Amino acid sequence: MTNRRLMSLATVALVLAIFLPVSLSIWMSHRQAEENFMNDLDMYSTLAEMRTQRVINQSKAALRELDAYDGAPCTPEHLLAMRRISYSWRYVREALYINGLQPLCSSLQADSPILPFPEPGKITSDGFRAWLTRHNDLGLAKYMVAIGSTHYVVMVDPTSFIDILSHGTSPVYIALINTKTHQRIAGSPRLTAASLAQINQQGPTRIITDGEVYRIQRDADMGLAIVTWMAIAPLEKNWHRLLMMWLPLGLLVSLLLVFVMLRLLRRLHSPRAQLQDAIHGREITVFFQPIVELDNGKIVGAEALARWRQKDGSYLAPDIFIPLAVHSGLMPQLTKLVVETVFSTLGSWLHQHPDQHISINLEPADLLDPTLPDLLARLIAQWQLSPSQIALELTERGFADPAVSGPAINALRAAGHAIYIDDFGTGYCSLSYLQNLDVDIIKIDKSFVDALEYKAVTPHIIDMAKALRLAMVAEGIETEGQLQWLKTYGVEYGQGWLYSKALPPDAFIQWAENNLRAA
């Protein structure tokens, strides 16, 4: 993945880092508040359902115990047995003995004045009858839940079904509804007519209306519905409270992520990252500056010079980005790209002109790259060239550590490549050092060529090269005066704007062909 794609991803990640933690903190606080709210409501509803089942089961158990009595009805012993039932079973208020639907006696009195029960409103799946009635021996206008077997009925206060405490942080309300008559039997009077109308609709077990959330649990056997509900206002209040806890954490995480993303973006936007992208994208092109014989101006080869094309179409000179490649460890990758480009653009031309060569600049790091000799050998064989057609230029610092550079240079020279010392006179080499180097040509730096008329250093460099029997290439020749001076002092080859600037491959081939025809 290229650094540019990473930058795009990092930019997206930066935007997410700004908004996502804060958004998550808002969502988490709302979710937690809602979860706490619904947990309170569901817990209360579950307790109410458990209480309802307990009351119903206890009433049925009391009826089974009454059915087990085998004595004469409405006798003192029978009345005592019914009183014991109403006393020992917590939710049973009264026990009655009936014949058909007519009460005969009860646990309260021997002779029951109650009118006959109507037909039961519900018959449960296990055969018990159920009524919602105001029948009682005391003349009270109070609804009771009556559950009966064949000969007995037990009366239960409907409040018993919903008499539970709330342990939540917000008020919870509860009501017991008759699903047949759609009326409230017991519980909170806060249940509005509009809410009751929605609750009585079959299907949903949870509705939201009038700023409140309702939880509905229906008991089809008994024809009852337990409704629990809570106002939404405490949910909003709790959400704001939790938001004050989550939001600072979200902001802190957001700041940390933004800091990390900005550092990553800065790193991806660094010159090194841009150069690495340019290498991977093969945006580094190679221009070629002709090298000629000074005596006759005939081309003998060219120096390959890397150029970095910018977005505006201009080219960045190598003296700007080569030091960056050296110090950032990208030089071997860049050199490999230059070598491959030299062969892909001029391989065919070199094959047609076996007397021509291309010199490629190497840095000290390239000498440590074990893949370079194999790459050169493979491409030379592929294009059917002579190794002597590829010369290798090293600056003087490339020779600074003989223990490292010596074996590598010797191996390249043994493979048939000519070795140049580039920018000679600007680095570390001395006469005694040069005597031990296996090199073929020295290149006189442009700074010495520019100073021919008023400095005496260049003649000494030329004399040194002659003493070591090394050929010379003068760089940066721009005037006829410089050319005549160099020819006079016996410099064999040269390059510079007097002949041609560095040219793209097609323009170089055209220039070279014209030069060869003219010669």
Automatic annotation (TrEMBL):
UniProt KW keywords: c-di-GMP, Cell membrane, Hydrolase, Membrane, Transmembrane, Transmembrane helix
Main localisation: membrane
Going by the record, the broad EC class of this enzyme is hydrolase
| Record EC number | 3.1.4.52
Q: Which domain of life is it from?
A: Bacteria
**Can you say where in the cell this protein is located?**
Cell membrane
Q: Which reaction does it catalyse?
A: 3',3'-c-di-GMP + H2O = 5'-phosphoguanylyl(3'->5')guanosine + H(+)
Q: How does it sit in the membrane?
A: Multi-pass membrane protein
**Residue stretches making up the EAL domain:** 268-516
Q: Which InterPro entries match?
A: CSS-motif_dom, Cyclic-di-GMP_PDE-like, EAL_dom, EAL_sf
Q: Record's Pfam families?
A: CSS-motif, EAL
According to the record, the segments passing through the membrane are: 243-265
In its UniProt entry, what is this protein called?
Answer: cyclic-guanylate-specific phosphodiesterase
Specify the species. Answer: Kosakonia pseudosacchari
